């Protein structure tokens, strides 16, 4: 039995109206459902397997690449000439990070210590840890600057100590020794006669404090009552602020611990975080939108003001004593050692710094740091943080090992820490936090489009029915007119034939 057009029209009308109503409801309710799903997945909660595992154990590839600046002309530097360096590396280390001592509190915060361990990856490196490089002897040239204001007699005694321990202004060691430490009798001696002054104890190595260590006790908000503060630091080692710097603003502990951020970012958002290694809070700014492995991201980069001096950027005055823009003095939290951090090759720094050392070539691609962030969840998809360690060296009267060194901030090394979400974690993340919300968002438009199509179909059927009805009426009228004509014309013809016969 065929279905009548009237029933089809009614059916399409009902389906269309329901689809439009449901789609319209989704326009208003859909974003709330999506946001609720995101909130449940990004708050720090052991019940959220995906996000909690990512936060606790960081199950993604993470690497540290170290580049050393091998000094080519140590004797000429001692004579007052410009230093010449060549970059060696990268020496790549896989990095394992995990959180321990995790404790949740009633005020919706959680405390933890994050540990880190490094493993050399020779297959990813250019060279191995047995490679030999020459760098300034931090124990001599660094200590000389630290002691330049002591009485000259003391400085001469220190110089004699350097000589007796056969410590010169430059050292040539293997990469492994410079990274993880080598025995120094002089270091033990200095720690004995000048307790607390030296930043190293036992072995001397620039990454001695990194391996098998933690970054301090962080207490952060879980976001369970306010997702806008999730991952934000409440305190570090029990402190609400540090006391390394000269202004309240510079001493503030802002942002997160530098791994995840609150969700629902816009292009006006920034990425503030506290770095224990830099002893300060830092902030990245939005640069552009893009995609990372099929996931939409915002790229955040370091602004030029990050390490600007107080003259170029007044809010940084509290980080002084300042030198050229592009340098941050960290001696205030490193036993007053003359150590500065910057971006690699003095990228984004005062050009004068690059001109004091031969062998540098700063550029954004190789030396700019960035974080590619999925804006809806606050989860980094691709991270590349790059920093350079520099040592201030100069002639110090009374210490013969410093020769006639012209005052210069000499790069020692730079390192980049990089990580990206990949493998099963990426698939799960993309499905739960990207594809499903996207499908939910598109469903509202699909239902509205479907509803409007049904309504248009209903109107078309209705018009078709009216046209057919009108056409049927016209045909019936013409049939009636045709019948009347035949009746009228019949007698006339008969009469003509009768007349003809009569005649």
Automatic annotation (TrEMBL):
It is found in: Cell membrane; Membrane, Caveola. Keywords: Cell membrane, Disulfide bond, Glycoprotein, Membrane, Receptor, Transmembrane, Transmembrane helix. Its main location: membrane. Residues 492-503 have a biased composition (Basic and acidic residues). The keyword Cytoplasm does not apply. The chain crosses the membrane at residues 12-34, 442-463. GO terms for molecular function: lipid binding; low-density lipoprotein particle binding; scavenger receptor activity. Residues 477-503 are annotated as: Disordered. One of its GO terms (cellular component) is caveola. It comes from the Eukaryota. The keyword Transferase does not apply. It is a multi-pass membrane protein. GO terms for biological process: cholesterol efflux; cholesterol import; plasma lipoprotein particle clearance; recognition of apoptotic cell. Belongs to the CD36 family. PANTHER family: SCAVENGER RECEPTOR CLASS B MEMBER 1 (PTHR11923:SF110), SCAVENGER RECEPTOR CLASS B TYPE-1 SR-B1 (PTHR11923). This is Scavenger receptor class B member 1.
